[in-house]
Amino acid sequence: MSDTYTPPDVWTWETESGGKFASTNRPIAGATHDKELPVGKHPFQLYSLATPNGVKVTVMFEELLAAGHHAEYDAWRIDIGEGDQFGSGFVEINPNSKIPALMDRSGDTPLRVFESGSILMHLAEKFDAFLPQSGPERTETLNWLFWQMGSAPYLGGGFGHFYAYAPEKWQYPIDRFAMETKRQLDVLDRQLAERPYIAGNAYSIADMAIWPWYGQLVLGRLYDAATFLDVTSYTHVMAWAEKIDARAAVQRGRMVNRSFGEPHMQLHERHDASDFDTRTQDKIAPSS
Ligand SMILES: N[C@@H](CCC(=O)N[C@@H](CS)C(=O)NCC(=O)O)C(=O)O
Description:
Distance between the termini: 46 Å
Bound molecules: glutathione
Order of helices and strands: EHEHEEHHHHHHHH
Helix content: 40-55%
Number of helices: 10
CATH class of the domain at 135-247: Mainly Alpha
Structural class: alpha+beta
Strand content: 5-15%
CATH architecture of the domain at 135-247: Up-down Bundle
Strand order of the largest sheet: 2-1-3-4
CATH topology of the domain at 135-247: Glutathione S-transferase Yfyf (Class Pi), Chain A, domain 2
């Protein structure tokens, strides 16, 4: 990394920084173009993409449905590579222009919910599921939910960015964020050595928040970094990740709003439970 850069007195936005996603990065908030969002027939309208933050919420919906709750939802795909998150309709729901964003239309007045942790809490409280109503178990679940919200940016925006997406490999940031990512994995490993799920004996929104990042990391699905980070040494995280991965609702949740990977795993939009059988990309756009 060059050691000759001297920051100017005032930073100005002059050039693209390079690297993946550079073309959509901007130093200003707000909409770049007018675009209304579609609205489907169900009480919950989700606007998202199958990144780890998006998967948290689609897993929650599929878990709620699997548990018998009336949590039917329409899931619309927001292509963040194309800048859909800067459309006027999306920005009205999430002024931070990031997926996932939810419109809860189940009440008299539509309610916007953004930030994946806020969405998980909102749904958990609405359906009284995957989050104890009170007591130490509730506090512990929220401890880990908020741990994830604060920690994952070091994994994604820090380690993932410099290891996989930056235009060049620079040792300083990779070392810094690999160290922090491994420390976080060790935090989880020690926690999971003592209990089956993150917050105790019950599967909860804390697992749903943490698994898409740290579970998928140790399963080798994030940044192709499993060997580099020696993930198999975190044996309790590995066992927990595999256990969660085997859940049918998790397998369905991973497919929703997904537009990469194997065609049979991609369900671009989800409007009905039957879509998993009939509307995956291998079925609606079979390669010839
Ligand atoms: N703290 C937010 C983070 C959401 C987030 O970073 N979403 C990313 C995809 S994983 C995104 O929409 N990026 C688009 C952009 O930065 O323009 C949450 O948990 O909901």
